[in-house]
Specification:
By secondary structure, the protein is an all-alpha fold. It contains eleven helices and no strands. The N and C termini lie far apart (78 Å). The N terminus is likely disordered.
Length: 295
């Protein structure tokens, strides 16, 4: 008895979120699979042509949805993502397919941005629980059934989901839960992409932020310091952001002289990068620092 090889498929139809750290894998799509022997050649060609048309249609819809998402046209993006999902499900794509979960994650992010909190939380929890169960189920699948690359792809999708959910929870002051999500996401990124991967550094910095917000200044400082060391090592493009975060933590620790020095370095780098948002935040940090030192 032959073992049918599993595939994530269709997963690659969906563009990644800018902050995502996923790789790409998968074949042409679940809708591509059809029997090579159950139909006449002419009918097979017709079926193949229909399948190709369907894939082109899904690709166009996914591209349009992602463009709307990036442009902030959230209602339009929601409609388009739902259309893509409906087509995938109609072809028999399972709910734990990575493509379906990516759409669900995008929808959760849209609902979060729209302050539709019940829908956002339900979406995030669906993605996390479905992926955790899928990873557990597929853990011992042999290579001929599911490749190591496909397992990694699913693991990284879980990391991206936890990262996004953590940011949502942090923005809504659910700090303890946000920390849990960031810790899990950081562990996955370390395991799959290494300590010096740019996303690992960003997650380490984000974890320091949520620790700082809870008053755990020593733990926050240790994580931010480590993130900065790694950022310097690889010349991370957002090193000024990590510096600004570290400076804020030092200020909260009342290490005012060191905080001043780090803020000033962060400001120089942010100005050199032309990052006006970061420049403004760093200047606000310096103003708060001056106020604290004078009080």
């Amino acid at each position: 008895m032959s073992v049918r090889r599993r595939s994530s498929r269709i997963h690659h139809l969906l563009p990644r979120h800018p902050r995502a750290f996923l790789g790409s894998s998968g074949d042409a799509g679940e809708a591509c699979s059809f029997s090579l022997f159950s139909k006449p050649v002419e009918e097979e060609k017709d079926e193949s042509s229909k399948t190709e048309d369907q894939i082109i249609f899904l690709l166009k819809k996914a591209k349009m949805a992602n463009l709307a998402f990036v442009k902030g046209e959230l209602s339009n993006a929601e409609t388009l993502y739902k259309a893509v999902m409906s087509n995938l499900l109609a072809t028999g794509t399972p709910q734990d397919n990575n493509g379906i979960i990516e759409i669900s994650l995008k929808l959760a992010m849209i609902y979060a941005a729209q302050s539709q909190h019940e829908l956002a939380i339900a979406g995030y929890q669906f993605c996390v629980l479905t992926l955790e169960e899928k990873i557990k189920k597929e853990k011992d699948f042999p290579e001929e059934v599911l490749t190591a690359a496909e397992k990694t792809d699913t693991h990284l999708l879980l990391g991206m989901t936890l990262d996004s959910y953590g940011r949502y929870l942090l923005s809504n002051k659910q700090l303890s839960r946000a920390q849990t999500m960031y810790e899990k996401a950081l562990q996955i990124c370390r395991e799959e992409q290494g300590e010096t991967h740019p996303q690992t550094i960003i997650l380490m910095n984000d974890l320091a932020t949520v620790m700082d917000a809870q008053g755990a200044y020593d733990n926050a400082y240790n994580h931010a310091k480590k993130a900065l060391e790694l950022a310097r090592q690889i010349e991370h493009p957002e090193q000024h952001v990590v510096l600004g975060n570290l400076a804020g933590i030092l200020m909260h620790k009342e290490s005012f002289t060191e905080a001043q020095r780090v803020y000033e370095e962060a400001l120089r780098q942010a100005q050199k990068k032309g990052d006006s948002v970061a420049v403004q935040r760093i200047k606000e940090g310096l103003a708060e620092l001056a106020q604290r030192r004078s009080s």
